[in-house]
Amino acid sequence: MTDATTDLATGPITTNDGRPLKEALAASLAVRRRRAFLLVAPLFLFILISFIIPIGQMLGKSIYNDGFSSHAPALAAWFDAHPAGSAIDESAYVALRDDLVAMKKDKTAGEAGTRINYDISGTRSLFTAAARGAEKMQPPYMDAFLKLDKKWGDPNVWRAMRSASSPFTMDFYLAANDLKRNEDGKIVSVGEGQAVYKKLMLRTLVLSLEITAICLLIGFPIAHLLATLPMRKAMLLMIFVLLPFWTSLLVRTTAWMVLLQQQGVLNDLMVWLGIIGDDGRVQMIYNQMGTIIAMTHILLPFTILPLYSVMKTIPPSYVRAARSLGATSWTAFRRVYVPQTLPGVGAGGLLVFILAMGYYITPALVGGADGQMISNLIAFHMQKSLNWSLAAALAAQLLAVVLIFFWIYDRLVGIDKMKLG
Amino acid sequence: MALPVYATPLEKLWHYTYLGICALIFLFLIAPVIIVIPLSFNAEPYFTFTEKMMTLDPSGYSLRWYDSLITFGMQNPDAPRDAAFWWDFWQNATWVQVTKHSVIIGVFATLISAGLGTIAALGLTRPEMPWRKPIMAVLISPMIVPIIISATGMFFFYSMKWMPMLTEDGIGFGRLAGTYAGIILAHAALGIPFVIITVTATLSGFDQSLVRAAASLGANPRTAFFRVQMPLIMPGVVSGGLFAFTTSFDEVVAVLFIAANDQQTIPRQMWNGIREQISPAILAVATLLVIISVALLTVVELLRRRSERLRGMSPT
After folding, report:
1. How is chain B split into domains, by residue range?
2. Half-sphere exposure of residue A67, counting CA atoms within 13 Å on the CB side?
3. Which residue among A76, A170, B45, B143 is least enclosed by CB atoms within 10 Å?
């Protein structure tokens, strides 16, 4: 003790080789930090390259589409020189004709037309037809184009071309929110009949919420039972939870198709029991009900397991103490037991909600028309309509919602506390 | 969960109601998995129990759907069942081909994700690891990001020519889409969160003083790792790997987007079957897959118990 104080008095504590202790410790910590990081680095790079960058690049497509701009340089130049609102004069039609002639040569009129078609449906043929006739056109081109098709005088088409002449655009986010620009460039909502995306996003949220609620409602008693039974019995019953968990998603979805069909096992059983008549068979699949039942079954283990691991840690003596102080069993359960399970409810509920939002396979197979979720629409635009930019915009919005809930999950539960089985 | 002796009649009634509710939920959980098994032996092309099945009449049951699995896609399905028939089966039967693809993809994807994942988990559980939370969030993200978004992202990225590989005109840049390497990399990425979660959970229960004890007894870091730490965390690594393998074995969306037409896997073939014309043959496949999952579950449970015993956590 006295030695140390004299050392402190004479100067900073040093290591054997004379370096200040603080510095030496910091250096050794830096080495250990670097070592830990180097262990993680290969996997981090792998995920970055094979997962994060691909998604980032895909999301980029939602604001970048050069389908029109790369094939219409003359029009782009005209739009640059003439700000929005200026009259569409002969010089614009000259630029249009130049671009169409070039498109005809490169066979890109279809691609350029498709881009405009995303904004105003039915305009793709306008471009392919005009490209065919562009070479033979005689000036004045304005009249020539209008003679070919009146739509070439439509300010809306010109507005769409102006917007598409820059590869960077917010048009797809507008479309993904059921919005569009009118002739004056103002943002207005699309007609009642065409508004689908907001409704579907809302339905995805509502369905996920319903599924989460059902999962918590029926997962809670199961987790409670498993946590309070003697170990041996609980382990045996745990198989009922873990076996579905390990069974292929497609197998479980198929099984529900078999069970819920109109000519399926459940309807047969109900007819046999006399609950319903043979002509009153219930349609339980290929609609929202099918999606909810199958997804609840698939996601239920994700609620039960976190709930179970929290309930395991709750000492039974608390409830007993409450009872001994005069609480009824219901009060003891509500005021003493349930509050202690909240971390598990939060963990299980949030995880199920996050996973449910992104479900694709099950709704696609058993959802019918009104059981589809936003993922199914993204797949539709990817594979069928081939409007990849709109698919990317929808994906970006879905991802944003999912990431917000992932962030909440991290705040409330902590991602390093995530457990499986 | 026994009733206390002081329970009122109402509480007793509620207790048995509660047990009844639990039984119904367990039925809900297990019934779909079990129901496909007897139905796959249906002699009729229906998805329900026929009268003959209910009366346990042997003629109500048959192996015809399993037979159709065997012969589907074969060149000579009606040939006598000799060596040549089984060779044809091995070479041409559709379900054998898709199983081979699934196993190859699954094994390599698992090796990548379990290998890289375990090394990363070792770093992540060190107390001095910098930026642990954000890095963990990135590594877990393949599980959180909706699969349709991951698959479309990979589709675009793998459709570009950036991967150095052997192409038709020598070594050059090629696309990963339509190659086994592409699917394997995609599935490895999707399996990583499961490895990370399982192995970090095992490592956080690992007693670091064991490594220090080994060091104090003269083991160098390498020996301490391979002789002391590795055997103790191995059960966690294997069950993480099994998680990753099932993820790949069950994955259909990425395969739909990335794989070429001749690279069907079991789930993709099932997907086709369900979308087009669902026949009880699908139930035969489902039954086989249920048997596989029972086997996997058994292995994982045994490993978990072994791990608990090794760490001295189990009361038995």
Report:
1. 96-278
2. 26
3. B45
The secondary element (H helix, E strand) that includes residue A180 is strand A179-181
Is the backbone peptide bond immediately before A140 cis, with ω within 30 degrees of 0? yes
Q: Which residue has the tokens 């300010």?
A: A155
Whole-prediction pTM = 0.89
Q: What is the C-alpha to C-alpha distance for residues B23 and B31, in angstroms, rounded to an integer?
A: 12
- Can you say whether the dihedral through the CA atoms of A8, A10, A11, A15 is positive or negative? negative
Instruction: Tell the CATH superfamily of the A197-417 domain.
Output: MetI-like (1.10.3720.10)
User: What residues of chain A lie within 8 A of the CB of B248, using their CB?
Assistant: none
3-state secondary structure of A65: coil
Helices A141-148 and A90-106 meet at what angle, rounded to 10?
A: 60
Domain ranges of chain A: 2-60, 69-194, 197-417
What ipTM describes this predicted complex? 0.89
CB B259 within 8 A of CB B183: yes
Residue A414 — left, alpha, or beta (φ > 0 → left; ψ -120 to 50 → alpha)?
left
Q: Cβ of A16: how many Cβ atoms within 10 Å?
A: 6
B307 residue type, one letter: S
Q: What is the C-alpha separation between B104 and B255, in angstroms, rounded?
A: 14
* Residue to substitute from B36, B144, B242, B289, interface A, most A β-carbons within 10 A: B144
Predicted confidence (pLDDT) per residue in A96-120, tens digit: 888 888 888 888 888 888 888 888 8
How many Å lie between the alpha carbon of A231 and the closest alpha carbon of chain B? 10
Which of A34, A48, A50 to probe by mutation at the B interface, max B CB count within 10 Å?
Answer: A50
> What would you report as the CA-atom Rg of chain A, rounded to the nearest whole angstrom?
32
Give the Cα separation of B99 and B231 in Å (integer): 32
Distance, in angstroms, between B49 CA and closest chain A CA? 7
* Residue length of chain A: 421
Type of residue found at A241: V
CATH class of B96-278: mainly alpha
Phi/psi for A81 (5° steps) reads: -75, -30
pLDDT tens readout for residues B16-57: 999 999 999 999 999 999 999 998 998 888 888 888 888 888
Query: Which residues on chain A are in Cβ contact (under 8 Å) with B198?
Result: 420
Report the distance separating Cα A73 and Cα A95, nearest Å: 9
